[in-house]
Amino acid sequence: MQRIISLSTIPPRFRLIEPTLRSLLRQSMPADEVRLYIPRSYRRFPDYDGSLPDLPPGITLCRPAEDLGPASKILFAADELRERDCQILFCDDDRIYQPDWARFLFEHQARRPRECVSLVGKPIHRPKTAAGRRRRRREERRSPQKAGFAKPLLNPRRAALHIADFFARTWKPADARVLQRSRIYRAGHAEILQGYGGVAVRPHFFDASAKVIPDIIWAVDDYWLSGLLASRNIPIWLPAHAPMPLKSATSGVESLLESEIDGSGRTEANQACIDYMRARYGIWN
């Protein structure tokens, strides 16, 4: 079975993306191919002149005609590789990936071939009050197949991980040798994947209709991809204490997180996607 790593990028990040690409090429379990998708035109950057970044040897440049927004990092690859027996690990262009990152995700997904495996994820709704958070923790304890998102510091092991993670993020945020761990203390399922950590799937998890993304929603790939998986009854599995990639110099450069797209901010676009998925597929109710 082949292993493919896939990502996309945007023009303002071209000159800064090389360290990310080199970290993907230096994995202890090398991918058979590392694909970088750069569309021939961009929705967000209509003045893009077609120039390309300098790429290290070993990177496959892919030039789709259309721009699917951040979902470009997976949906083109899934479409092109759908008939192939392979895993696709898709990721963001603003991280530095530790050498065992790909191995961790590929191996976990191989053990769960009918599931998506995401390094990071979240519930579809986050409690806004202390009472709501306590209720969520009680629900997590009663449901062993649901990922544990809270990290109670009364547990010594979790406290030690929390403290080590804090100092790693505070003192050496860009040093790939610092091993940070995800905040998932118990492996389990979640409704929403978060692509910045990396996500391992099989190409047939997404069909051709996945590329038909409504306005506004195209900017929120995590919710769009999660909804497509839920509509096909493909669970999202979060491993516990996963090694987290670190922010690179591109982090924050023209970030969608802070952008307004088609007159909507991130929160409004996420809700629009939730409403769309509920209406079309009857999920997340």
Summarize the helices and strands and which ones pair or pack.
Elements: E1 2-8, H1 18-25, E2 33-37, E3 59-62, H2 72-80, E4 86-90, E5 95-96, H3 101-111, E6 116-118, E7 121-122, H4 130-142, H5 156-171, E8 180-181, E9 188-190, E10 192-193, E11 199-201, H6 221-231, E12 236-238, E13 243-244, E14 246-247, H7 266-281
Helix pairs in contact: 6-7
Overall pLDDT, averaged? 87
Sheet/helix structural class: alpha/beta
The CATH topology is what? Spore Coat Polysaccharide Biosynthesis Protein SpsA, Chain A
Q: How many strands, which pairing sense, and closed or not: the largest β-sheet? A: 8 strands, mixed
Weakly predicted, low-confidence segments: 169-177
Beta-strand content bin? 15-25%
H and E order: EHEEHEEHEEHHEEEEHEEEH
Shape: globular
Total domain units: 1
Spatial order of strands in the largest sheet: 3-2-1-4-11-6-12-9
- If classified by CATH, what would the architecture be? Alpha-Beta Complex
**Approximate helicity band:** 25-40%
Identify the CATH class.
Answer: Alpha Beta
- Could you state the oligomeric state of the chains shown? single chain
* N-to-C span: 37 Å
Based on DSSP secondary structure assignment, what is the total number of beta strands? 14
Q: What is the radius of gyration?
A: 18 Å
Note the total helix count. Answer: 7
